[in-house]
Amino acid sequence: MSTLPEPLRIALELAATGVPVLPLRRGKVPFGNCLACRGGACGDRPNMKVPGPCRCLAPCHGWAAATTDPAVLTSPPWAAAWRRAVAVAYHPGGAGLTVVDLDDADAIAWARTALPATRTVATTRGEHWIYRGAMASRNAVRPGVDIKSTMSYARYLGPGTGTLTTLPDAVRALAVNGPAPARPAPHSIAAPSAIGDGECPHRTPTYLERGIAMAEQRITAARSAIHTTVYRTFLAVLSTHGRCGCLTETHIARLFTAAQTKGESLRHCTDAWTNARTRLGL
């Protein structure tokens, strides 16, 4: 009788309690899209805002792939993923939970004075504070603090300690009143007047669309060195389209979405974008 991989054993135990789970591969990020779903070919864009309409049987849709169905978790595509998995993640919102991800000692100190006590799980750099109740996810609501609930995943790091507390208004208010996450400016990227005066030299809009789609695919297909891939992809896009004023917020959001689907935080995306612009002198 074969022994279940440890991540799968943990996943099945969590699923039995109603917690939707998914495997994480090396780098502790979800598995990338399979060939049939690569580049949004399955129709799952933008960013799997609902778990479908893709009918793919593989665990290749980030948080939207999370499930409690043991038949799915042990199916051949998932079993292959579990053999490669390094950790288990779960969809907090799907379990009716919200995770306040505290990334460092300063964030933990703030939470102890600002938020009611609840179940706490130690992480590599900080703590997860878990509350009963779901809400919209949002990154960087304050320094070192992210909210993970609907349309997000959190790494499972054990049952933690303490009793679950009902999601307080103080946490909900963070997503409404907290400082907005840093992101690229909402207008088109303006070129310096000395470089083309902002006029787009590309022959047709199709050229830009193809470039953005290829950039999304490159990020989605990355199996390692995600940080480096995201930075180099941003650099390539900006080197081609960053000086002509044709990039819009929608294009930038598509690139950020692809990176975040691979597990990058909004802060990492913003840093990579800023660094690429700085290198190119934009």
Q: What would your notes on this structure say?
A:
- The protein has 282 residues and is α+β, with helices and mostly antiparallel strands.
- The strands form 2 sheets. Strands 4, 5, 6, 7, 8 and 10 form a 6-stranded mixed beta sheet that branches. Strands 2-1-3-9 form a 4-stranded antiparallel beta sheet.
- 37% of the residues lie in helices and 14% in strands.
- The radius of gyration is 20 Å and the shape is globular.
- Helix 6 runs antiparallel to helix 7.
- It has 9 helices and 10 strands.
- About 10% of the residues have low confidence.
* Number of DSSP helical runs: 9
Q: What profile does the largest beta sheet have? A: 6 strands, mixed
**What structural category do the secondary elements indicate?**
alpha+beta
Low-confidence stretches: 46-52, 178-198
| Mean of all residue-level pLDDT scores | 81
Q: Termini separation (Å)?
A: 60 Å
What is the H-and-E element order? Answer: HEEHHEEHEEEEEEHHHHH
Number of strands: 10
Shape category? globular
Strand content: 5-15%
**Radius of gyration, whole Å:** 20 Å
Q: Which range best describes the helical content: under 10%, 10-25%, 25-40%, 40-55%, 55-70% or over 70%?
A: 25-40%
Quick overview of this protein structure:
Helix content is 37%, strand content 14%.
